[in-house]
Design brief:
The chain is mainly alpha-helical. It has one domain. 69% of the residues lie in helices and 0% in strands. The chain has eight helices and no strands. The chain is globular and about 45 Å long. The two termini are 28 Å apart. The relative contact order is 0.21.
Length: 159
Amino acid sequence: MLKQMTKFISPTWNPVRAALAGLLATIAYSVAMEGDMSLTGNRFSDVRFIEGMLPREKSVRKGIPVLAWVLHLLNGVALGEVYAALFERFLPGPKWVKGAIFSEGFIIAAWGLTPLADKYHPFIKSGELPKLANWTSFLQNIVRHLVFGITLGLFYNQK
């Protein structure tokens, strides 16, 4: 079974470089996220979204959500690994285009789940976060993931 799975993994995959590229891409994404929230006034934050899924008392939610930030960064590392191990070699164009195609494809594929988030996510239901299934949030996510993908593609070097 393991041998069957390894034929899907790129022979040039470099897990360390992929993790670093994913981390750097997530940092760039986070800067874009803070910027677009300021520009649009739509305060949808991925970190707050993650924080809302963590079990804890309301009084603990004040301050910096360290665990949510760690999970946000690890999610980017995981996406970097998936990109490098499975998708990068099949995508057309220069590195930054490959990264952009991957990240935009990811968000477009995942966007169909946003009505479920609006219906069930604790922070969205309570009004602590704005609804996700709307054009402003969609465009914010398109831009955020474009920044992520370009950064991922540029920093993942498979040499």
